[in-house]
Amino acid sequence: MSALDEVIASHVETSRLPTSELARQLVHNLGPTLVALVANVRDRKLPYKWSQTDGPRPRDAALTRLQVAHRCWSILAAPEGADVARAWFIGANPRLDEDSPAIAIREGRYREVITAAVAFVDSSDN
Fold first, then answer.
1. In this structure, are residues 118 and 11 in contact, taking their beta carbons and an 8 Å threshold?
2. 44-98: per-residue pLDDT in tens?
3. Distance CA 114, CA 104 (A)
4. What gap in Å lies between CA 125 and CA 100, rounded to an integer?
5. Which residues of 35-73 are buried (b: 16+ CB within 10 A; e: fewer)?
6. Residues paired with residue 93 on neighbouring β-strands, in sequence order
7. What is the distance between the alpha carbons of residues 35 and 69, in angstroms, rounded to a whole number?
8. pLDDT tens digit string along 5-22?
9. Angle at 7 (CA atoms; ends 6, 12), nearest 5 degrees
């Protein structure tokens, strides 16, 4: 699968998820603290609440950040595994000026982060 195909597939997969399922998957894989950081909310319990079917919905800006995080997770987790994907979100990344992808998503640097995720997977293929 080409890099563009990976990006499009992650977008389609993420776009089709109900918000509660999107939040549930992120909380399960990244933990509520990291999800709250990515979404730029202070309350670490909010991601749990978002993951409930009848729970509140994140504001639009937070939802966009969650969608980008899920897209990156989708790009990384299948080829690299859950542990590597989670470490990628937290670690300093040279493609993001040594910021962590979680911080870069919080700051709205979506294109940079998705490009960094694809580059990480592509570098593993070599």
1. no
2. 999 999 999 999 999 999 999 999 999 999 999 989 999 999 999 999 999 999 9
3. 10
4. 22
5. bbbbbebeeeebbbbbbeeeeeebeeebbebbbbbbbbb
6. 99
7. 9
8. 788 888 888 889 999 999
9. 95
Type of residue numbered 10: S
- Given the structure tokens 């950081």, which residue do they identify? 37
Q: Give the list of residues 6+ apart from residue 113 with CB closer than 8 angstroms, or none.
A: 68, 72, 96, 101, 104, 105
Is pTM beyond 0.90? Reply is yes
3-state secondary structure of 99: strand
pLDDT in tens, 40-59: 999 999 999 999 999 999 99
Which long-range contacts (C-beta less than 8 Å, at least 24 apart) are formed by 91-98? 95/119, 95/120
Q: Do residues 118 and 75 make contact, with C-beta atoms less than 8 angstroms apart?
A: yes
Tokens coding 47: 């991601």
Using alpha carbons, list the distances in angstroms from residue 57 to 51, 82, 85: 9, 26, 25
* Placement of tokens 């299948």 in the chain: 78
Which residue(s) pair with 99 in the sheet?
93
